[in-house]
Design goal:
The complex is a heterodimer of chains A (about 180) and B (about 450). Chain A has about 180 residues and is α+β, with helices and mostly antiparallel strands. Chain A has eight helices and four strands, in the order αααααααβαβββ. The radius of gyration of chain A is 26 Å and the shape is elongated. The chains are: A alpha+beta (about 180), B mainly alpha (about 450).
């Protein structure tokens, strides 16, 4: 779930305490039926009852998640994937108007401190430039880089800055391969 | 989005109709037994659609909206086959109401969930989008070097692309599509285990729907939940055939297993395990042993071969490689990975933050069945679960990825199929007989 935060120990303890009380009350109300259980049925009942202790915690997870997901604006909603990978959804959007339909592309990441962001750069380009297809760097018409210069991948005739470096995320660049 | 949801509802109704045709033609239900066959039928319909859509896409079809409708109606024509039997109506208990309530809460949560999980936005959904937007299996796009997991079969993208044909490119509904698979799985549980299982049988699905891992995976809209739903139902049907010699169950095992294979790479070894274990259980009756093995082999061929042929023709390298498996220098060098992955998979299975007490309970029930029920049957169930998990260990052992990265990013999800199959098989193991209305 997208919006479930890691809860402080006190919150979890309180939710489990509520679960114990809830399950205790229910078990007391149903004590005759529960005490009549024998053998494997009692084992199953114990497992279910013990699991239900976590019911308030599970409910809290839903509430937290809903509070988060219902507060997302249109941009966050449309770009939740890249944002989860520490990349802005518009990172290479400018390349859409530069690379013609049918143009081929390749990516390279350089010094990117966040490995998830580094790995997600290529998929973000793939999604943004759809339906243009990628190619081997030696054959691609365009080179997109994050934290590297397009010229370090293949000879380029022109370089565009797609987004300057911002805090930990290095600059994204586009180069037109010289062929 | 509400109009799109109606489109998704219509598509799911088509898959259900297709499945009713498949299950009726297989002889699973007849007469007025339709209400007791909806869960199995939905899963069979989705599986049959995924397999056939993959085949048709490979053959050059574009699977436009009318093609989806025609394919489903052709499958639905199976309802005209005059065969089958009435099934006992699934019982509704107070636990059913609790499960329905939890499912409703899940649906509300998923309604607001955007597409965010890494695998879903980086390759599952883009593949589905490409199938719909490019009018089929475009060789240039699907074979491009920077597409992740190019070798994965396209059963799930084919299902999602059919959704896009009815809803437009609405990615927010993909979680709800996975939710429908879970609802169908629970209905299938009521249909298969309900009439056969012991008195405590409905405690298991309650623990399944309450499990945080299920909610987490549904919100991620990846292939693991549809695969787990199809595989759990397939394994249960194979076991029903083993216990009751029900031919319809064997045929439907084949259909669902083909769907499993078409969804994701690990589906193939899972299906192979079920086929091999049940065949071994039948020995030395060779003819009986060939039946589950034949069904599994047929499922693997139908579910995998068309895609394998297409990807070979487009020079797409396979991540799962027998070459790596049989390379002694590589496997010996990586021997430490075996214990690492076994430990990690067990941690994920027994983690109460993921599956509450479901796995400890299934373990206790399986061990108790060894002492108090049929040892041979217990060994069959245990072998299916353990060998499925062993295929995962094998995959991690020979994986080209760094082991810790691979485990952290996938282990919690890939165990779901064997786990849900276990949840189906244990109550069947403790079953009190197999009543059937005729």
């Amino acid at each position: 779930m997208l919006g479930v935060p890691s809860a402080p120990a006190a919150t979890i303890a309180a939710l489990f305490a509520a679960g114990f009380v809830l399950v205790g009350v229910c078990a007391f109300a149903e004590r005759r039926r529960l005490l009549a259980l024998r053998g494997i049925e009692s084992v199953v009942a114990i497992a279910v009852i013990a699991s239900l202790v976590s019911a308030p915690l599970l409910g809290w997870r839903f509430v937290k998640d809903l509070r988060y997901t219902t507060s997302l604006d249109a941009y966050d909603r449309a770009n939740a994937g890249p944002i989860q990978a520490y990349l802005p959804g518009y990172l290479v959007a400018r390349a859409q108007s530069t690379i013609p339909p049918g143009g081929t592309w390749a990516t390279r990441t350089g010094r990117v401190s966040n490995s998830i962001a580094s790995a997600a750069f290529s998929p973000l380009v793939l999604v943004t430039l759809f339906p243009r297809v990628s190619a081997d760097p030696s054959a691609a018409g365009w080179i997109l880089t994050l934290g590297a210069l397009p010229g370090s991948v293949a000879p380029v005739s022109r370089t565009y800055l797609l987004r300057p470096a911002v805090s930990a995320l290095p600059a994204a660049r586009l180069g037109k391969a010289a062929r | 989005m509400i109009a799109d949801a109606f489109g998704l509802l219509l598509l799911n109704a088509l898959w259900l109709a297709a499945g009713l045709g498949v299950t009726r033609a297989a002889g699973w239900w007849g007469g007025r037994g339709v209400a007791a066959a909806l869960g199995v039928s939905y899963l069979a319909g989705a599986a049959a659609y995924a397999v056939l859509a993959q085949l048709l896409l490979v053959l050059g079809a574009s699977m436009k909206q009318w093609e989806v409708v025609v394919l489903c109606l052709v499958l639905a024509a199976g309802v005209l086959v005059p065969r089958g039997r009435s099934l006992p109506r699934p019982r509704v208990t107070w636990l059913t109401a609790v499960i329905a309530l939890v499912l409703a809460v899940l649906a509300v949560d998923l309604w607001f969930q955007p597409l965010w999980a890494y695998d879903s936005w980086t390759f599952w959904t883009p593949k589905a989008h490409a199938l719909a937007a490019l009018g089929g299996l475009d060789g240039r796009w699907f074979a491009q070097p920077e597409l992740l997991n190019r070798d994965y079969p396209i059963g799930l993208p084919a299902l999602e692309a059919a959704g896009f044909r009815f809803t437009g490119y609405e990615t927010g509904l993909l979680d709800l599509q996975s939710w429908v698979f879970v609802v169908a799985l629970l209905a299938a549980y009521a249909e298969i285990v309900g009439p056969r299982g012991p008195s405590w049988r409905f405690a298991i699905p309650l623990l399944v729907v309450l499990s945080p891992s299920l909610a987490d995976q549904l919100a991620a809209a990846e292939a693991d939940i549809p695969l787990a739903a199809l595989f759990a139902c397939a394994a249960a049907l194979a076991y029903v055939w083993h216990r009751e010699r029900d031919r319809a169950a064997l045929v439907l095992f084949g259909v669902l297993a083909a769907g499993v294979v078409s969804l994701k790479a690990e589906g193939l070894p899972f299906v192979a395990v079920v086929g091999v274990v049940l065949a071994a259980a039948e020995l030395p009756r060779w003819r009986a042993a060939l039946a589950p093995l034949g069904a599994a082999v047929a499922a693997i061929l139908v579910g995998d071969l068309p895609w394998r042929a297409w990807s070979d023709r487009h020079d797409i390298p396979q991540q799962a490689s027998l070459g790596r498996l049989t390379d002694p220098s590589l496997t010996v060098h990586r021997l430490g990975r075996v214990s690492t992955s076994v430990r990690y998979l067990l941690e994920k299975l027994y983690d109460p933050r993921a599956w509450l007490l479901l796995v400890p309970l299934l373990t206790v029930l399986t061990v108790a069945a060894w002492f108090r029920r049929d040892r041979r049957e217990t060994a069959i169930v245990a072998a299916v679960v353990v060998l499925c998990l062993a295929t995962l260990v094998l995959a991690y052992w020979t994986s080209q990825f760094e082991i810790h990265y691979h485990l952290v990013t996938s282990a919690r999800r890939v165990i779901t199929g064997p786990l849900l199959a276990w949840a189906f098989l244990v109550p069947l193991l403790w079953g009190r007989g197999y009543p059937r209305a005729t």
